[in-house]
Design brief:
Blueprint: H1 4-11, E1 29-34, E2 39-45, H2 53-67, E3 75-81, E4 103-111, H3 118-131, E5 136-140, H4 148-151, E6 161-164, E7 167-170, E8 173-175, E9 178-182, H5 198-210, E10 216-222, H6 229-237, E11 242-247, H7 251-265, E12 273-283, H8 300-308, E13 312-318, H9 320-328, H10 338-357
Parallel strand pairs: 2-3, 4-10, 4-11, 5-9, 5-10, 11-12, 12-13
Antiparallel strand pairs: 1-2, 6-7, 8-9
Helix pairs in contact: 3-10, 5-6, 7-8
This protein binds adenosine-5'-diphosphate.
């Protein structure tokens, strides 16, 4: 008589191609039932329509039949899959959550890739808008590398909770007159991997719904790079009025920008794209002020913007002081400098585009 344990031992020899662990230890084998007439079991998948389902089912069957050929045509394998992910719901921009009721414009700052300067642009645009006398907040939702606390020298800030009008609220930090809430206040950067799951989504939701922004003209949201599930959560929870996309001129960075454009244009999301910002467009050495070196390529963002029918809001060169000021915790736009003028021009162009769509 064959026992359940005999079958489980066989199934331990089948490894899940993605995790490299065996099906039994992964907890994928359920309801195993072995009798003389039949073997039945359920293979449980954490994803909806898992592409590996049919090949793993075949492997299970094959392994059992190799050892116990008498079960030919007597094996039943059920596939259990997780429920499909909810589709993003269109956001009701007219009725935002109560903590966002005093925020006039919510702008997504996004990029297809990491390291293109999205966080630096967000911080400098925030300072530029603040210097134009707007009331500004920054929501740093970049789970993969929350850098706003460093950019605003608020690394040691611990947000406190408060009951306001009977509701639980979190008080943002403040630097250079800008209010800041960051996922970085809640996570230890070394734990980033753990935070990419549902816990991250919950922490983001809490920040979105509970931050006490008060009255703001602009809330800039520093999104994680790319176009994953987390973006769908964010765009379905935040009533964005517009989005800007940051890229370098490099072909490989621009290729993915199109995907970002599609995401915002998706029927369910439908956030107006205010424009593209090209960062690291060229480099001019101090000793050769008339020379421009196009290190990452030239004109790529301008062409892409024209092709996609969106505005190029500006081009920002590589400037050493931009990086230094960021590391010092005071975005360069807080100083009188040529560097500041790039961000100020972009802020002006962004407002112009926003006025067209609102
Ligand atoms: P992202 O948010 O897209 O990952 P960051 O804003 O963190 O990118 O920028 C990546 C690095 O490039 C940082 O060290 C930043 O200081 C630097 N950086 C960004 N823009 C510029 C620029 N225009 N000139 C010089 N350094 C820049």
């Amino acid at each position: 008589m064959i026992r359940n344990e005999d079958i489980l031992t066989l199934l331990r020899s089948i490894l899940h191609p993605e995790s490299g662990e065996n099906l039994v230890d992964l907890g994928m084998v359920e309801n195993l039932n072995v009798s003389e007439e039949r073997i039945s079991l359920t293979l449980s998948f954490a994803r909806h329509r898992d592409p590996l389902a049919s090949s793993l089912k075949k492997n299970v069957e094959k392994v059992i039949l190799t050892h116990y050929p008498q079960y030919q045509d007597k094996i039943t394998i059920f596939i259990k899959e997780a429920a499909p992910k909810p589709k993003p719901q269109p956001v009701d921009r007219e009725h935002p959550a109560s903590n966002l009721a005093g925020v006039k414009n919510i702008i997504a700052v996004s990029s297809a890739k990491g390291g293109v300067g999205k966080s630096t642009v967000t911080a400098n645009l925030a300072v530029a808008l603040s210097r134009m006398n707007y009331r500004v907040g920054v929501l740093d939702a970049d789970l993969y590398g929350p850098s706003q606390p460093t950019l605003f020298n608020l690394e040691n800030y611990s947000p406190v909770g408060e009951q306001i009008d009977g509701e639980e609220r979190i008080i943002p930090g403040e630097s250079l007159g800008i209010k800041l809430m960051s996922i970085g206040f809640f996570i230890d950067a070394s734990d980033a991997l753990i935070w990419r799951g549902p816990m991250a989504t919950n922490a983001l939701r809490q920040m979105i719904r509970q931050t006490q922004w008060g009255e703001l003209d602009f809330l800039l949201v520093d999104l994680p790079p790319g176009t994953g599930d987390i973006h769908l959560t964010l765009v379905s929870d935040l009533p964005f009025h517009g989005a800007v996309i940051i890229s370098t001129p490099q072909k490989i960075a621009l290729a993915d920008v199109v995907r970002g454009i599609k995401m915002f244009r998706n029927d369910k999301i439908n956030v107006p794209i205010l424009g593209l910002i090209e960062n690291m467009s060229w480099f001019t050495p101090a000793e050769l002020p008339d020379n421009r070196y196009y290190i990452f390529g030239r004109g790529g963002a301008r062409e892409l913007a024209a092709r996609e029918g969106i505005k190029l809001l500006g081009e920002i060169p590589l400037i050493q002081r931009v990086r230094e000021a960021s590391d010092e915790g005071r975005p360069v736009t807080s100083e009188e400098s040529l560097a500041a003028s790039y961000y100020e021009d972009i802020a002006g162009n962004m407002i112009h585009q926003l006025n067209k769509v609102r």
